[in-house]
Write a structure and sequence with these properties.
Length: 272
C-alpha cells in the first residue's frame, strides 16, 4: 500500500476460525494477537490499534479519494468476532476539522507506537471487499525511520475491487518502490466471499508470502545492497481500505457499503 456514531446497518459476520493446516512454522510461538472477540458492536481495542489520520487535510497518497475517520463505527466496527473496515460514499465536511474535500470515508488502523516486531510469522485471516473502487491492504512499515521508502514496506496482501479475484504481495525499499517494487500475485477466486489466511514469514535473510499456507511468489532474499534490506529493524502493522487511486481505480458508489474488509484475527508469531 504505497504509502462516534451508531452503526445504522451493521454487517453481520459469521466467524470461521479454522487455521490453514500446518500454517505456523515449527518453533514459532504466538507473541501478539487480536481475535476481535467482543460483545455487541465496539470500536477496535485502543490498547492495540490507533487511527492513521495524518493526511486527511492535504489528501492521501496515490490519488486516493477517502477521508480516514477517527474512531467511527460506520467505518471500523468489531462485531460477531470480526473487525470490519467499510468504505462509504459520504462527506464529513460539517462534522470534522481536518476534512480535505473527500466524498468518501473509510478507516486506516495501525499498531504504530503500540506494537512492532523484527522478524516473525504474521497471519491475518480476512475476507476482502467486492466493491469496485476499493483497495484493501494488510501491510507493515518500518517504525524507526518515518521516511518512505527508506523505512521499508511489506505488503502482506493487496487487492482491488476491479480485480477482486487476485491478491498481491509486494516489497518496497530504496532499491525498488512503487511500480518498481518486488511484487507477485496469485488468483484467489473466493477472496471476497470466503475467509483466507494471508501470511508472511520474515527472517533475517528472507521474506516469504503465503495464502492459506501455500507460497505464491518468489522469496524476497536479502540482497547484497543494503538499500534493498531495511528489514533488520521493527515494523508495525496496518489495516485499511482505500478508495480509488492508482490501484483502486474507478469507483462504483452502489457497491461500497455493501462489503468491507472483514478481519477474523491478526496473529504474530516469533521464534521462542
Amino acid at each position: 500500500m504505497v504509502s462516534d456514531g451508531v452503526l445504522s446497518s451493521p454487517i453481520s459476520v459469521v466467524k470461521v476460525s479454522a487455521t490453514a493446516p500446518n500454517s505456523v512454522p515449527s518453533g514459532y510461538a504466538l507473541v501478539w494477537s487480536d481475535e476481535f472477540n467482543t460483545s455487541g458492536i465496539q470500536l477496535p481495542d485502543p490498547s492495540k490499534w490507533s487511527y492513521d489520520i495524518a493526511q486527511n487535510k492535504v489528501g492521501w497518497f496515490n490519488g486516493e479519494l477517502q477521508y480516514y475517520a477517527n474512531g467511527r463505527l460506520q467505518n471500523s466496527a468489531v462485531q460477531n468476532g470480526s473487525l470490519t473496515i467499510t468504505a462509504r460514499r459520504e462527506s464529513l465536511a460539517a462534522s470534522v476539522s481536518d476534512w480535505g474535500g473527500q466524498n468518501y470515508t473509510s478507516a486506516r488502523l495501525f499498531t504504530k507506537g503500540k506494537s512492532s516486531w523484527t522478524y516473525g510469522f504474521f497471519e491475518i485471516r480476512a475476507k476482502l471487499p467486492c466493491g469496485a473502487g476499493t483497495w484493501p491492504a494488510i501491510w507493515t512499515l518500518g517504525s524507526t525511520v518515518d521516511v518512505w521508502p527508506d523505512q521499508g514496506e511489506i505488503d502482506i496482501m493487496e487487492q482491488t475491487g476491479w480485480d477482486k479475484g487476485t491478491v498481491l504481495g509486494t516489497i518496497h525499499t530504496l532499491a525498488g518502490s512503487g511500480g518498481n517494487g518486488s511484487t507477485g500475485s496469485t488468483a484467489l477466486a473466493t477472496a471476497c466471499n470466503a475467509f483466507h489466511n494471508f501470511q508472511i514469514k520474515w527472517t533475517p535473510t528472507a521474506i516469504d508470502f503465503y495464502v492459506d499456507g501455500v507460497s505464491y511468489r518468489p522469496t524476497y532474499n536479502k540482497p547484497v545492497n543494503a538499500s534493498g534490506w531495511p528489514f533488520d529493524k521493527p515494523q508495525y502493522l496496518l489495516l485499511n481500505v482505500a478508495v480509488g487511486g492508482v490501484l483502486g481505480g474507478t469507483v462504483n458508489d452502489a457497491t461500497l457499503s455493501n462489503t468491507g474488509l472483514e478481519v477474523d484475527y491478526v496473529r504474530v508469531y516469533q521464534i521462542r
